[in-house]
Write a structure and sequence with these properties.
alpha/beta, formyl-coa transferase, domain 3, 2 domains, elongated
Length: about 400
């Protein structure tokens, strides 16, 4: 039977918002840490205000976006513009093992919650700042959101179709990439603390973590002075390689033919074995030279069948293929549901909804979503009493002076 969670007994003071920071602390919650998110109704997290909303009804506790990336956490309402709230935040940090924030560089210092202050309160504290550009350098004071990291990292320069200008990649890679890198950095600092007793400050740059996922493109320039050409879904070596139209409204299927042997199997599977010996397509080099005509051949066949039928036929022949899945496809996928990837936990406002869960399994550790995302400020009194050491009268006083909104 799985033992307790890897981070059980550890507490996280979560000052993050939007996506990068909450995605980092989500991983820590999955690993069993008690994550306490610091929020305020005077400036709610952007993601509490973004659709999709449950039953199409807006509300700060009804956002599917927020409720996805804040599963397993608690929420305490502190208006950090109030000195009394800053004092409560200091108590929370002193009682925590980890502090996470993703404001622009310098914001926490200006609030009186910077590393020097918090490290003085708890010497073994691990603190991470997931800012856009890091705490040093000429761009450190700039505010950043994930979409900006796509062009800044060079990702847009290699995304798009041949002959077309650079394109956005569809999601804000800087956010989840920074969040995941941040979670790994925190785990590394915790290992260091376990060995030495020392706390640590982690200065993460979302810009730099975005660049870290583009090693081929950067290496091509630094080693040879060449920039990879935008080429849609095509691969430098494999052909055919791409997403092809299938039968049905906006239905598509992904296909990757890795070598000449796979091409021969593909040709046989579609009922045209002669294509394997056709000099235009017989070798990988020939297929790359004639890729436009090659893709017309592939599309002529895929367009006659559903993505599922194409997938079944090609996989049976040993050719890489899979349905270009919609959100609906994924939610109903029998494999994902059989593995228990999706979680359905009761939420006090929107009821029980399906969310993506923990994407890994550990044989000896209890990693799971332990509770639905919190309503704004739902755990304020409990955290102030049990974690920060306030009495009932002191909590009432904080509420009186509008520190708990």
């Amino acid at each position: 039977m799985a033992s307790r969670a890897p981070l059980a007994g550890l507490r996280v003071a979560d000052f993050t918002w939007v996506w990068a920071g909450p995605f980092c602390t989500l991983q820590l919650a999955h690993l069993g840490a008690e994550v306490i998110r610091v929020e305020t109704a005077t400036r709610p997290c952007v993601t509490r205000l973004l659709p999709p909303f449950a039953d199409f009804e807006p509300g700060p506790n009804r956002s599917g976006y927020f409720n996805q990336y804040n599963q397993g956490k608690k929420s305490i309402a502190l208006d950090l513009k109030r000195p009394e709230a800053i004092e409560a935040a200091k108590r929370l940090c002193a009682a925590s093992d980890i502090v996470v924030e993703n404001f622009a560089a310098g914001v926490m210092d200006r609030m009186g919650l910077g590393w020097e202050v918090l490290h003085g309160l708890r010497p073994d504290l691990v603190m991470i700042a997931l800012s856009g550009y890091g705490a040093t350098g000429p761009d450190s004071d700039k505010v950043s959101y994930g979409p900006a990291q796509v062009p800044l990292s060079g990702m847009s320069s290699v995304t798009g179709y041949r002959g077309f200008p650079p394109m956005h990649v569809g999601i804000s890679y800087g956010d989840p990439t920074g969040g995941l890198h941040g979670a790994v950095a925190v785990l590394t600092a915790l290992i260091h603390r376990a060995r030495t007793g020392q706390g640590q400050y982690i200065d993460l740059s979302q810009w730099e973590t975005s660049m870290a996922v583009l090693p081929e493109a950067i290496a091509a320039w630094t080693m040879n002075g060449t920039a990879p050409e935008r080429d849609g879904n095509r691969d430098p070596d494999m052909a055919p390689h791409g997403v092809f139209r299938a039968a049905g409204e906006d239905r598509w299927v992904a296909i990757a033919v890795e070598d000449d042997a796979a091409w021969a199997r593909f040709a046989t599977a579609i009922g045209k074995p002669g294509l394997a010996a056709d000099p235009r397509y017989a070798t990988a080099a020939a297929r790359k030279r004639n890729e436009d005509a090659l893709e017309e051949v592939v599309t002529a066949w895929t367009a006659m069948y559903s993505p599922e039928e194409v997938t079944e036929t090609l996989q049976a022949a040993g050719v890489g293929a899979f349905v270009a899945a919609t959100n609906h496809d994924l939610a109903d996928d029998p494999h994902l549901n059989a593995r228990g990837f999706f979680v359905e936990l009761p939420h006090p406002v929107v009821g029980t909804r399906k969310h993506a869960g923990v994407p890994w399994r550990m044989s000896e550790s209890d990693c799971r979503v332990r509770r639905a995302a919190p309503c704004l400020g739902a755990d304020t009194d409990q955290v102030l009493r049990d974690v920060c050491g306030y009495s009932e009268a002191e909590v009432a006083r904080l509420r009186e002076v509008q520190a708990l909104v």
